[in-house]
Amino acid sequence: MGPDNVLAALDPEQREVAEAVRGPVCVLAGAGTGKTRAITHRIAHAVHSGVVDAQGVLAVTFTTRAAGELRQRLRQLGTPGVQARTFHAAALRQLTYFWPRVIGGDPPRVIESKLPLLIDACRSLRRNQDRSELRDIASEIEWAKVTQIAPEDYAEAAKKAGRTSPVAPEEVFRLYEAYENLRRERHLVDFETILELTAAVMTEHREVASQIRQQYRYFVVDEYQDVNPLQKLLLDTWLGGRDDLCVVGDPNQTIYSFTGATPRYLTGFSVEHPNATVIKLVRDYRSTPQVVSLANRVLDRARTPHKLALIAQRPDGPEPVFTEYDDETAEAEGVARAVRKLVGGGVPTREIAVLFRVNAQSEAYEQAFAKAGLPYVLRGADRFFERPEVRQAVVLLRGAARSAEPGDTLASTVHHILSGIGLTPEAPGGGKAREKWESLKALADLAEDLAATGADLPAFVAELERRAGEQHAPPVEGVTLASLHAAKGLEWDAVFLVGVTEGMLPIIYAETLDQIEEERRLLYVGVTRARAHLGLSWALARSPGGRRSRKPSRFLDGLTGRSAQKSRAAAPASSASSADRRQVAAPISCRVCGKTLAAAAEQKLGRCAGCPADYDEALLDALKSWRTGVAKHEKIPQWAIF
Ligand code: ATP
Ligand code: MG
């Protein structure tokens, strides 16, 4: 897109964002309103009009995929060369560059997971190593580090912050301390330390700070509602008192506060920067009015001061479909059938996503999709280049490249090596084996693509290493299976939100009202990922013939709510192909008493005219009955979140 069209492709408010070329600028707006679009166009406009060089821009976002998309959008706008990175990637590059110059020696090695070090810390303290407990401890250490809390202050701070870790605070403190000692001894850095050290090196070495600040003059942060105190510290250090900063975010999409993120930097932006230009966007360009209406109703029930209701811009589409299944297998098979139907109707698989609360839920879908012959991509689990099979493959390929005996073609050499570690001609069923196969197949496909450009094995390995550095997975076509957390910022034509039950969404260990509200925001994030087709489903039992002990999520009350259950009882006998499911239309019920609302005015209000506006009592009641009704053995470990 040429410089002239950059502004033409925006609505008046988005244009205002793009034309506010000098910071501080804050865009506070709901999902799908074009925040990400506005910032990419703003950067392009600033570069085209000579306000800043492309190299002087640092655009920061939260996931590698989102950073990749930012870069792609910027390239399409004729602005290649802009640095669009995650906080970690940007910091790591700077740290790696300056370390040998100012500290000396090799930079520390990055660890992706805290677990191996924590296991050693346990050994040093002669403590048991229960794996799920270790994951809980790792989350607590992460929280403490992003909140800048030293080990000795952990117990008090955790109590004050209302952390609900099942591990005793004194235990966490001892392990946190041992973990940090081991980490330093072994010259390792975890994600939080990367940010901490980058900020510290800049603070202690003025020449480093001035070099970085000379390079980056123009800062943009997407998804600012999920910035944590450590990221904020680094951002402030990068800025060094300057204010060419543009942030965009949606407080109703804060979904990482359990790790220490907070929307207060977003909502307090104009207090921190009294000269800020604050712009709100309300038009939703992503979703049909039917999806937008559901999203607004989800938000209506949220305890949020930022209602940010969305106004749909797209033409009508299908109504969201709510489906109850007897068990999880039936649910996964039902979703696979619905996906097949969409694909048959011309929706490409890459435009379809199945979103769930915890990664462990993907298993049933992997099985069902493999059985139905539907390609799928699992996102948000291990990063591609961190997967054991990919690491193993890269080591073998690197070795082969060094020995690099001529003769075979690149594709057949790679195939030969990969088949030695599990790449078969046929894809295996589901689960881990399938996941491993998909990773190896992706490597083989990439080799074929590169071979077509004349690349040899060393060139292929160099490309893998470049991608590993950037954490870029080779693109694989297929239905996306992802956790709700991993789906942030993304969009698909069709989205299936599955497992919408009490215990899953909200997740069973969400106890406090704040935690429950974060779960509700996850539902909002999920709903707003859909452009047109949206399915929400749940299963009453875990496995076929199992006890039907599950209940639909409380968040569905008033969306399908009690009336959905009534319709279910009255549902006509289903057809043979869908004997296990009942589809339910989505009548609007009162969010306080649950009665179906017939009057349009009441529907708009979301409650009966006679019911109190303040529904905290109802929320509390629901919480009480949910707590007592939940079987303890169903506890889902915290590590299963992503
Ligand atoms: P989220 O909160 O989920 O991150 P967002 O506010 O960043 O959403 P975008 O992803 O920028 O929203 O935009 C949503 C969709 O709407 C994209 O497909 C984008 O291209 C499209 N869009 C945004 N603004 C416009 C516009 N003015 N005209 C046409 N399409 C638009
Ligand atoms: Mg966005």
UniProtKB/TrEMBL annotation:
UniProt keywords (A-Z) are: ATP-binding, Helicase, Hydrolase, Isomerase, Nucleotide-binding
Q: Which SUPFAM superfamilies match?
A: HRDC-like, P-loop containing nucleoside triphosphate hydrolases
Its EC number(s): 5.6.2.4
The segment(s) forming the UvrD-like helicase ATP-binding domain are 8-288
Q: Which GO terms describe its molecular function?
A: helicase activity
Q: Residues that bind ATP, according to the entry?
A: 29-36
Query: Which Gene3D superfamilies does the protein's record reference?
Result: 1.10.10.160, HRDC domain (1.10.150.80), P-loop containing nucleotide triphosphate hydrolases (3.40.50.300), PCRA, domain 4 (1.10.486.10)
Reactions catalysed, semicolon-separated, are: Couples ATP hydrolysis with the unwinding of duplex DNA by translocating in the 3'-5' direction; ATP + H2O = ADP + phosphate + H(+)
Positions of the UniProt region annotated as Disordered: 542-578
Report the InterPro entries cross-referenced here: DExx_box_DNA_helicase_dom_sf, DNA_helicase_UvrD-like_C, DNA_helicase_UvrD/REP, HRDC-like_sf, HRDC_dom, HRDC_dom_sf, P-loop_NTPase, UvrD-like_ATP-bd
Which residues fall in a compositionally biased region of kind Low complexity?
Answer: 562-578
Could you tell me which residue ranges the UvrD-like helicase C-terminal domain spans? 289-602
Its name, as the record gives it, is DNA 3'-5' helicase
Q: Which organism is it from?
A: Streptosporangium vulgare
The upper taxonomy is: Bacteria, Bacillati, Actinomycetota, Actinomycetes, Streptosporangiales
